[in-house]
């Protein structure tokens, strides 16, 4: 690409959601954050971020797709904070290139404050997209990028690394794991319309809303070990029951949002499969061997919601969606990553 083209063509990235298959809290760090042991995977459902050099000065952000929720002012959005942090890191490093202001367009497709990592994924995508837009992709080693990422949020290093991973520390230690062999498993996501703050859930956990120590850790270690050794997709899906109960934050989330408890039970009765919670919630997940099976379940859940058979109070109706877990390897077309490059059309659409 020539320099002149680079300046007018937006850089477009898909920022995938994540799912915590396990989430064990193994202690409290000196910095106050909780130390985790969590197996996390990327999902096909993704936000879309487009960055282009701005003609006016100052980075700008326009968000669509999140009109029904309060996502806070743009200045506090992780996309603008990620661009600012990346620019500061470039300057510190003496990167000898113009770093023009950027106009960002973010299309939200991942529910907000849902335990799916949308904001963190947007931030990881913004780091690499900004470097790309400025033409300085090679300016940083992976470790430097990871440090920019971890300062932005606990889940950002996972998204920057891309792919299946064991995540430890507060989220900054990311060990890649091989995805299972075979067809990509799918998940049904059900996100009640109750915003749940991660900070509030961790505070509730610290205040005593927690299971006995080690409850989720054995399962989390076992799953990480099995994946590292190589696992088939069929065997992985068979493990759903173990993963669904391996979340040490579930009782803290229930304390913050009590309506989730009967809703989760009712969802389990309806789909007759194990129901897990992603991260600090409130998103609930159900694992399926195929996209067709997950889509069929989504139809059943939507019908039950419409008929009033799956009651839940909330500011919005629940978000229900079937999506695949990304099992592509780096370099493949379904690669997970710090924002998968998206095909670019002249108007910046995909
Ligand atoms: O890093 P992030 O913005 O996702 O975290 C939100 C809040 O959740 C933190 O301010 C902290 O209170 C809590 N947290 C924690 N331990 C973690 C991650 C988050 O205590 N590993």
Average of per-residue pLDDT values: 91
What shape does the CA trace take?
globular
Kindly state the number of beta strands. 12
Question: What is the terminal-to-terminal distance?
Answer: 19 Å
Helix content: 25-40%
Question: What are the distinct ligands in this entry?
Answer: cytidine-5'-monophosphate
Structural class: alpha+beta
| Low-confidence residue ranges | 330-337, 343-350
- Main beta sheet, described? 8 strands, mixed
Over the alpha carbons, how many angstroms does the gyration radius reach?
20 Å
Order of helices and strands: HEEEEHEHHHEEEHHHHHHEEHEE
Portion in strands: 15-25%
Task: Count helical runs.
Answer: 12
Describe, in plain words, how this protein is organized in 3D:
The chain is an alpha+beta fold and 350 residues long. 35% of the residues lie in helices and 23% in strands. It has twelve helices and twelve strands. It has helices at 3-8, 78-92, 118-133, 142-152, 156-161, 198-206, 217-229, 233-238, 240-244, 250-256, 260-271, 291-306; strands at 11-20, 24-28, 34-53, 60-64, 102-107, 165-169, 173-176, 186-193, 276-277, 284-288, 316-324, 340-341. The strands form two sheets. Strands 1, 2, 3, 4, 5, 6, 7 and 12 form an eight-stranded mixed β-sheet that branches. Strand 9 and strand 10 form a beta hairpin. The relative contact order is 0.18. Cytidine-5'-monophosphate (C5P) is lined by residues 33-34, 36, 153-155, 170-171, 198-199, 202.
